[in-house]
Amino acid sequence: RYTWILSSPNFGVTVLTGTFAGYILQEKTWKPARKLTWLVIIGASMVIIGWIWGIWHPVIKKLWTSSMVLVSSGYCFLLMALFYYVIDYKGWKKQTGWLKVYGMNSIVAYMLTMCVNFSCIGHSLFHGLEQYMGAYYQVLITASNAVMVYLILWWMYKRQLFLRV
User: Are 145 and 152 within 8 A, CB to CB?
Assistant: First the structure.
């Protein structure tokens, strides 16, 4: 049975860890190398502590246990460190423009994938391929769903339409 009341504080802590990462990145007095170092140290620490804590309190996503909060937040810190290193530290911004389209309307992307099933478009376009692709046909349909979401987000981005909460 799903215990959302017991896991609700853990969702709040997850949000706070993301806020904390944002504060690290916005710190004006820190050099980029220091920000990167702290993101890696905090991320690795949370992953290690979360998996150790998972021995006594299992890492369960559906229940969003406290060990899951540590593990997932740690991985997010490590991914943030990786992207910060590649994009801001090394300056490889040209190749990451498509990420901006998703990032500027990430809530819309989430809502579209949760509320709208675009698979009918993929099925209409690629129906004849199903017999040749076998199990990989579903991969094609899933990819076409992602393309549809991206096209909507790109259209919104080009028109400066951003959902803000």
Answer: no
pLDDT tens figures, 19-71: 999 999 999 999 999 999 999 999 999 999 999 999 998 988 877 888 999 99
For residues 38 and 61, give the distance between their C-alpha atoms in angstroms, rounded to a whole number.
Answer: 26
Please answer whether residues 68 and 10 qualify as being in contact, where contact means their C-beta atoms are separated by less than 8 angstroms: yes
CB 105 within 8 A of CB 116: no
Q: Is 31 helix (H, G, I), strand (E, B) or coil?
A: coil
Residue of 45, 72, 49 lying closest to 61 (CA atoms): 72
**b/e map 89-105, b = 16+ CB within 10 Å:** eeeeeeeeeeeebbebb
For the chain, the straight-line distance linking the first and the last C-alpha, in angstroms and rounded, comes to: 31
Calculate the alpha carbon distances from 141 to 49, 108, 119, 160, 163 in Å: 39, 20, 6, 29, 27
